[in-house]
Amino acid sequence: MVAQFLGLKLRIMGNAFRRSPWQVFGLVIGLLYGGFITVVVVGSLVAARVVSDVAATHSVIVVIGSVVVAGFALLPLLFGVDDTLDPKEFSLFGIPDRVLATGLLLAGLIGVPSFVLIVCAGATVVTWSQNAGTALVALISAAVVVLTCVLASRVTTAIAHSMLSTRRSREAGGVIGILLLVLIAPVLLLLVTVDWGRDGLGTLGSFAGWLSWTPLGAAWSAPGAAAQGDWGAAVLQLLIAVATLVLLWLGWIGLIAHVVAAPEREARSKAYHGLGWFDRLPGGPTAAIAARSMTYWGRDARYWVSIVLVPVIPVFVVVALALAGLPSHFIALVPLPLVCLFLGWSIHNDLAYDSTAIWLHVVSGTRGLADRAGRMFPPIVVGIPILVVGSIATAIVFGDWAVLPSVAALSGAILVIGLGLSSISSALFPYPATKPGDSAFTQPQTSGASAALVQSLSFFAILFLASPVLVFLVLGLTVNAFWLGIAPIAAVLIGFATLFFGLWLGGRAFDKRGPELMAFANRND
Q1: Which pLDDT does position 67 carry in this prediction?
Q2: DSSP class of residue 284?
């Protein structure tokens, strides 16, 4: 049975060369790239055999090896992998779960990534061949590493196929993947700032120190610990690696048993009771549009995929400012205005999300002012608690309650200015957006330079109009506290003037451009 699985995998790989010429060309390029990586890594590992600094070699191998294990485990979940040997396809053959799990695991050893991993892991035996004991530990660790990576890949691939079979679950997985990348970003920025010529080995040693005791790096670390004479740590790390492999194997068998017996997972339809936000808000066109917008923000993946990223955007800016050496109490003033900036800017192309449904507004005679005001309701509902809580948190972190009115005024002004300008741009300059029902991660082919221009102008116009309030806040912090009292006055005048002007002009544009908006929706459907 195992031989049949291996033969099936080889035939599948051979059939890859029977595709179109361009696909074969891409496959050959991938094979050449894999071969090049293998030669470089193997050459480096063999050369490391004669390096006198064993601790440095140990740290480099542990860190890079941990990244490799994490890649095998996470890439199928984050980006999806076409499983040519899906366990569900064998559900009708009556194969025992353990036999099926073994056959699919061994078949997973056949492939370009697995081949590269096997050769590179085997080369570590040469790296740690100082004596027979370290070579034996390295050989066992290499086998454990290969089986762990392949098993982790098989498990996460099966989970991706089973659990992420619906579009909504895939989009949720994509959002989680983006959030993970955002969380990793500060670490990458920190690594960029390291002086590798002076502090590189120390930094790698710090990372390797804790990775060595995790499932990611234990197997890679055991031979290095043995080569440095720390046999106690080597044995414990090897036990951690073997225990991880055993748990993965048990999880793989259990997953096989579940997948072959479970029916195909389908999206479940939800039963909604009542009219939701339409019950909570009073009657009238403005309230109806506000209720519909709130419903979209809660259910439409195109909205929440974008909105969920708003709070994490300041992470990049805060980390960059911290690495640049800006004092922490000044950095505390940055996150809240940034969140309000992106929240107010979020509806700058809201009308394009309606697609051809915009005809309901046109034929029903909905006033432009009602449409513009109703679409502001979700960011206002979300923005007010953020503004209140964020202002208090900013004052606490900054360490001076005197900045509370100015910070709240600046953030509130940015929010309402963004809403006012977005009301104008979405009616005057809509650009193609993701269609209803499409994946939130797809982008229309027609959105090019015009979309980028509208996005840039609407974004920087918010900053330009809010700049006087920002200047008064900076003057109050650096020159005279008197300006901290002027900032809220300027924020109220500029913010509400822009908001009301945006509502008026955006409403007039919506009333006059009904046919053009309908033509735009049909053209991009």
Answers
A1: 86
A2: S
